[in-house]
Each structure stands twice: as structure tokens, then as C-alpha cells.
Amino acid sequence: MSTGARLTARWRGSATHRVYSVVVFVVLASIDNVAAVLVPPLYSPIARDLGVREGAVGLVTAASFLVAAVAAVAWAYAGDRTRRKPMLMIGTLVWAAGTSGTALAGSYLAFFAAQMVAAIGLGAVASVGFSVVSDLIAPKRRGLVMSFWGLSQGVGTLVGTLLAGVLGAADWRRPFLVLAIVGLVATLAYFLTYDVRRGQSEPELARIFAEGGDYDHRISRADLPGILSRRTNVWLVMQGFTAQFVFGSLVWLPRLFQAKAEAQGHPEEIAIVIGSLFATLFQLGGVFSIAGGLIGDRLQRRTPRGRALVAAVGILAGVPFYVVLFFVPLRVSVPDDAGTGAVALAVVSSIVTEPTITVSFVLAMLALALTSANSPNWYALLADVNPPEHRGTVYSAGNLVNGVGRALGNGLVGVSFRALQGAFPPPMNFALGLAAFQVFFLPTGVMYWLASRTSPRDIDDVRQTLRARVAAETGPGSRPGSGSGSGSGSGPESGSDAESRSDAETAAEKKSAPRHGTERDVRD
Prior knowledge:
Layout: H1 3-11, H2 15-37, H3 43-50, H4 54-79, H5 85-104, H6 108-136, H7 142-168, H8 174-191, H9 206-210, E1 214-215, H10 224-229, H11 231-249, H12 253-263, H13 268-282, H14 289-302, H15 306-327, H16 340-353, H17 355-371, H18 374-384, H19 391-421, H20 428-437, H21 441-474, E2 483-484, H22 503-512, H23 519-523
Parallel strand pairs: 1-2
Helix pairs in contact: 2-6, 2-7, 2-8, 3-4, 4-6, 4-19, 5-6, 5-8, 6-19, 7-13, 7-14, 7-18, 11-19, 11-21, 12-13, 13-16, 14-15, 14-18, 15-17, 15-18, 15-20, 15-21, 16-17, 19-20, 21-22
């Protein structure tokens, strides 16, 4: 064996390779949100250049949310049945092509079409990537790692807003060209990641992999009724509809700050930069999602209701801080002929020198810190209550409902701004509209509380299902080391559909297996 071959063999599947893979998936997941928020800070220059109203450009954003969510269901279902790495690479190339097409669009229709192509590709990134990351991380650390996964979404929002404001203030097409290049680099990064085996992180399946086998159970249509009957899935999916009404409205936050800057007398180009920078700085509170993930992990070890309770408290406690934030005055002194660097310096220094900006910054930190506890615990709990072959599909179903809610929230808040504008000129119409949409966080918190009541039983059921499968496939009479379809000998995800088995086919196994699960099993 050559030196290069030996190094490759040592690298493949090593701890370093797995860490690299997690980092790649976490970092590149942020691209989803970069693309999602790249357009809103540039509504006014895009609308002017394409000869349409800002509301028409906002419609493109709303439609892209929905298209990405629908596409994610197809990507995820296919990913739960076959190899996932090629699908991620294809999806990345598709959204890169759509993003480059956006930069070259010469008409509103071309702009709309390019954004829809990008949305189709983006559907693969989060849904298939989530399935892979959940197989790379053991259950007891899911909250922490998923906090980085969720944080990457916030970082994507931050980077996208900053990219749009700084690079797009003078030429709105430039940020899209940069993002398209990032997509090509992302494809290469995916190519070098570890092709993890499905279910490899589950303690209940360790025996199969130790004997050289594979977990070849794949989702089928017969599993869908069981997925829908799992009550925690219902609450986790449905809470996203109301939550995303709020999060969809918050993509207008740069526009609120832009309007405050314009009301202060700054020209549009300067106001766009100010609005984007303030929105970026105020989103730094999302870094506290790490704390939310750690708290969720720790509380989950004490009670199987832990993750859902952390998310419920965080969502509800963040509402008053958001509402106050929208109405605090924005005052920043910037000369009208200042360059981007001078504007950035003035914005950052105003956090210390201007009391109203200081108050706004603190409120934003608290609001984001509390509501960001939702993200890692949602991801981790979704993985906990579903077997490995269902996770991508259930995630994408949640993402679809999120997309519908986010599209409606993004679109309807725009309607509310126009309806309020007659009586309340900008920026008051933006502040009132955003504050009113906070009410949708209330049912979100309630549904998380309901999920906390059903999740202990669902977690235990999944663990018993996995134990039953291992007992059936490695017990007396089974071929040693065969695992669940390892006889195919063609890699970690190669079992044919005929060889793959669904939940419906293993229900009898679960019923006949000894029930070892106790509350202590769930906590560990």
C-alpha cells in the first residue's frame, strides 16, 4: 500500500474526519439563511432597477421560502432511501446556478425564476444535511452540536444581512455573484466529508456496527401513518407554523432600521448600510443558542421533558424584549458623504456613546438569547423521537410547515405595513406591524409544552424499536456480522429497496421484544 493510500485509509472515518464533516455541515447550513436574507435589505434598489414595487420583490422572498420548503420534502425522502452525499452536492450546484442567475437577471420575471431555481437547490442543504449530522452525533450531545447547527442559521442571517448591506448598497447584484462562488466551494467541501452510515451514532445499534453490519432500514410509504401518529412529531411540526409567522416578519428588521435612519434625514444608500449593520449587530444574541443547547442536554438527562420545556420558556420569555426593541428610537450621527467604513465605525461606536442604541442592543441580545433556545432543542428532540431512517423526512415536513408560515408571515407583515402607513408613517408602521406579529409566539410556546408531555413516551418507543431490530438481526439464528443487510457489501447506504425494511415490517418485532426501557434509559 502506498503512503498516500495509507494516509487516506487513516483519515477516512477517523475522529478528525468526523469533526471536519460536522464543521462542514454546520458552516454550510448557514448558506440557507444567507440566501434567504440577501434580498430583503436590498428591496428598494432591486425594485427600482427592475421597475416594480417593493412589495413585488417581497413576494419573491415569500415564494422562495415556500418553494425551498416543498423541495426539501422531496430531497429528504429521497435522502432517507439512498446515499446522501451526492444529493447534497447536486443540490448545492443547483442553488449556486440560481444565485448566479439572480445576479444576471435583467427583468422581474428572470429575477423571480432564478430565485426559484436557487430555492429548489437550497431545499437539499438543510433537510439532507440534518439527517447526516444526526448520525454523526451521539444522543447525549445532540443539544450542544445542534446548537451550532442552529447557530449557523443565525450566522447565515448575520452574514447575509451584512453582505447585502455592505456589498449591495451601491450594486445589488454583487452579493449574489459572491454567494454563487461560495456555492462552488461548498460542493468541493461536501465531496471531502465522511460518508457516515445511517444510525451509526445510536447506542442501541452499536452491536450491529461492531459485528461489521449495517443498518439498512429505509423509509417507505407504509411508515407515514406511524410518523403522523407520533404526537411529538405533530407538535414539533405544527409549532413551526406560528413561530415562522414571527421569524418571517423579522426579515424586515433591516427595513425598520433603514426607515428609522431615513426619518433621521440620511439618504437611502447610507440608510441601507445603517439598517443592515444594526440588524447584523442585534442578531449576535443568537450565539446564546449554545447555552440553550447545553441547558437542554442537561435537563434532558434529568427528565425526558427537558428539551421541550427549555424551548417553551425561551420562546415565551423573548416576546416582551422584541416588542420594546421595535419602538426604541435609533439615533446615529453619520455625514451624508461618508463611506461604508465610516458608517460602520459610527454604528459600532453608537452602541457605547448613544444610550438609546445601548438599550436597543441589550434588548436585542436578551430577545435573541431567549428565542434561540428553541432551535437546538427542536433539532435534537426531532432526532430523539424518530428512528434514523425517518429523520430527514420529518425534518423536511417541519421545514415545509415552517416555509408556509414564514412565507405567510413575510408576505402578510408587508400588507400590514402598507395598511398602517396611512395613519402611521414610517418607521412607526414597521414597528407596529412587527410588534403585532409577536402574538404568534404564544401558541408556539403552548405547543412546545404539549410536546414536553408526549416526548418521553415517543423517545422510549424509538429506543425499543431499535433494540427489537438489533435483537432480531443479531440474535440466535442470524448470520454473525450480517447486521441489517450487510450482505450487499456495497457500502453504508447501499441496500436495495427489496432488502430495506420499514417500521411497518418490524412492528411485530417490537411487540415481541423484552421491554427494557425505563425512565433511566430515556435520561441516559
